Automatic annotation (TrEMBL):
GO terms for molecular function: endonuclease activity; nucleic acid binding; zinc ion binding. It comes from the Bacteria. This is HNH endonuclease. The keyword Signal does not apply. InterPro entries: HNH, HNH_nuc. The lineage of its organism: Bacteria, Pseudomonadati, Pseudomonadota, Gammaproteobacteria, Vibrionales. It comes from Photobacterium aquimaris.
Length: 257
């Protein structure tokens, strides 16, 4: 399925209401979107603090309302039937969305994707973008939990190996992890990378040098978090050289400081 995208922005005073359809100023653009097509709506009406995902809608028919400011219109079916519109985290989505060229030079990657002039219904979304938006609707949550749980178990298994065994596997491992989308983008990271970086760090944060702030209850190991220096979403490698073990404070600073 290919999806389009529409923006319900600050020209609007209230939340998106699919019962009123959706209108465009261009008849040509409207007619390019065939009946049966589906699209996402992201909204940030005037006075709203955050972007929200209003759901998925299907085009039931085309019609004209020449007295409307947006006269070339779609009649819609609400596919997702959301009760509450989920808030979109611009920072996280800016990292996991494909890097977008163009748009306002001061905008983040999220806004370049969804707020540029004339982008609504211009062309179908990249499959990677539509998968991310689908995941924001909560699809794939069970898969996400399964992936995270499996990765934690694999790291624990890797930590039981010797450093020599891990390095042997790392020498033949792929540096680019497979990527799939669930509630957010999830990379199938190499547990040997995490285990070897934690082994290298011992009990000290590799940024501030302080001892890890606490030990895990389950196995009494020092708690540090493995961070990629160049993010995977920006093309960074899933390798020991591109990773560092950080205390939680330094890890938050690396992302938000």
């Amino acid at each position: 399925m290919k999806y389009y995208y529409a923006y319900h922005g600050p020209k609007n005073t209230g939340s998106f209401d699919s019962t009123s359809g959706y209108g465009l100023t261009s008849e040509t653009k409207r007619n390019k979107v065939s009946v049966g097509s589906e699209f996402f709506v992201i909204q940030k009406p005037i006075g709203h603090d955050h972007f929200r995902l209003c759901g998925i809608f299907k085009v039931i028919s085309h019609y004209d309302d020449l007295e409307n400011e947006f006269p070339y219109r779609f009649e819609l079916e609400n596919i997702s039937k959301l009760i509450d519109f989920p808030i979109l985290d611009e920072d996280i989505l800016s990292e996991i969305l494909p890097q977008k060229i163009g748009g306002n030079i001061g905008w983040n990657n999220f806004k370049k994707h969804f707020c540029s002039q004339g982008i609504t219904f211009r062309e179908p979304l990249q499959s990677e973008v539509s998968e991310i938006l689908l995941s924001e609707l909560g699809l794939g949550r069970e898969l996400y939990e399964e992936v995270v749980s499996s990765f934690v178990k694999n790291v624990e298994k890797s930590l039981k190996s010797s450093s020599e065994e891990r390095k042997k596997r790392l020498n033949t491992a792929k540096s680019k992890p497979q990527k799939r989308y669930v509630t957010t983008a999830v990379y199938d990271r190499n547990p040997d990378v995490v285990a070897e970086v934690l082994y290298r760090a011992g009990k000290h944060c590799e940024e501030c040098g302080n001892i890890a702030p606490f030990r895990r209850k389950k196995d009494d190991t020092y708690y540090l978090e493995v961070h990629h220096k160049v993010p995977l979403a920006k093309g960074g490698d899933d390798t020991v050289d591109n990773a560092i073990a950080l205390c939680p404070n330094c890890h938050r600073e690396a992302h938000y400081g």
